[in-house]
Amino acid sequence: MPESIGSMVVKIVIKDPRHLKGIKTSLEEAKLLSGSRDKISRKDGEIEILTNTNDCRTVEANLPGISYRLEQVEVTEHPQTFDQMVRQLLQGVPEDEVERLMQKVPKKWTIYKPMVLFKSGTFDDPVWTKHLSPSFWELLKQTGFFENVTHFAVNKPIIESDVMRRPFNILPLYGDFGPLSSFEEPSDQDFRSAFWCQITQNGIIQTWSPKYTMFSRGNIKEKARILQNYNINPGDWGCDLYAGIGYFTLLYLTRGMKMFCWEINPWSIEGLVRGLQSNKFKYRVVEHQQEYTKQQFSQDEIEGIQAVIFKESNEYSLHRLQELTPAILHINLGLLPSSKPSWQYSAKIRKTSPGYIHIHENVHTTDVDRLKDEIESFFHPGSVQHVEKVKTFAPDVWHITQVKHLRRAPVHQTPATAPTNDHLCPLFSEATRPFPHTSIRFIPPNTVGKGSSR
């Protein structure tokens, strides 16, 4: 019987590494070697080998005539693989059915405390339906693979045509995910009753409700790059036209920049607000059609407001910023698969101050240079300073970030004609869907696009 978490087992301690192979072979033949990933380790010049039994006599009977020391230790790491543990939980199920079930057991998963998220095509497969009882999950929680976890779910793909990027297809498997609430007009009670997850990346806390908003941990590389680059002075202003739960807004705030945010998904806005609170940033929320004057803006700066959230489409951002007249040094366009609908607004936000524009797109590997040329032309004058491959979406398809630095534009200059899909809705054309994400940094005075959430 394999050892379990918290049980006592025998540990063999030797000094001569030449004896290790013989001991390991003997234990394997007797099925006494621990299944722990750290079953063999070195400490203070000695070699330690874990067994799976607490019976010293049994261990001694299977050891060659060498010098060794036996100790009893508590198991703190799970000795079995996940497959082995699931097989153990399926005791009593016919062997042929077990084999069909094991073909769908996930090889890896993501933990967003207190939730475990499995990939589609695993525990959501019909072959598992009758086996996923509450007792199965209760036993799984006790195996040692999922500490401090209370919820299990399967992650389904985001519907690309949904401009609010909502995870309609997330499949709760176990745990209370809260009542079904309104996507478009949730109440304060809906927010309180919902299930929320939290993760800390780069020391920044991010919060979201998995039934109503998505989270992408694949952006961590781009997030780290932003944290490590750019000269940002306290009081500089940036603009996030697709704020979501604050993927990039919180990064810029951490760097000392103040942020204007646009978002239309109320669940994302609530996640952003909770993230701002958790990270101790001062903020103001402005409703659509609510007046926000330059006088109020000046007062907010005096009071130390660091983020202003507009609960509306970012197509209104140009008008808002023209009234407030801040110098915008960074503009983030983080909508996938394409942020092109907001290019036209971004170009108009640009006035006389140089700055950066961060453009995220899904781009095929053969089209990266073409997109770079398109950005160079559209946001003239300026140059693409950096192209970052963030993550893959499909074979040869990348989420790419391109960063363009915008030089000061002549007052008489008119922005270039918008791309063919510059309309506000839909937010992307069929041609952009299969391509990777490209993010570009560019420096314009004022840049705004259609307000949608990630």
From TrEMBL:
Record keywords, A-Z: S-adenosyl-L-methionine, Transferase, tRNA processing
Any one GO BP annotation for this protein: tRNA methylation
Reactions catalysed according to its record: 4-demethylwyosine(37) in tRNA(Phe) + S-adenosyl-L-methionine = 4-demethyl-7-[(3S)-3-amino-3-carboxypropyl]wyosine(37) in tRNA(Phe) + S-methyl-5'-thioadenosine + H(+)
Gene Ontology CC: one annotated term: cytoplasm
The enzyme's E.C. designation: 2.5.1.114
Domain SAM-dependent methyltransferase TRM5/TYW2-type positions: 140-408
Signal peptide residue numbers: none
Pfam families found in the cross-reference section: TRM5-TYW2_MTfase
Keyword RNA-binding: no
Protein name: tRNA(Phe) (4-demethylwyosine(37)-C(7)) aminocarboxypropyltransferase
Listed GO MF terms: S-adenosylmethionine-dependent methyltransferase activity; tRNA 4-demethylwyosine alpha-amino-alpha-carboxypropyltransferase activity; tRNA methyltransferase activity
Keyword S-adenosyl-L-methionine assigned: yes
Pathway, per record: tRNA modification; wybutosine-tRNA(Phe) biosynthesis
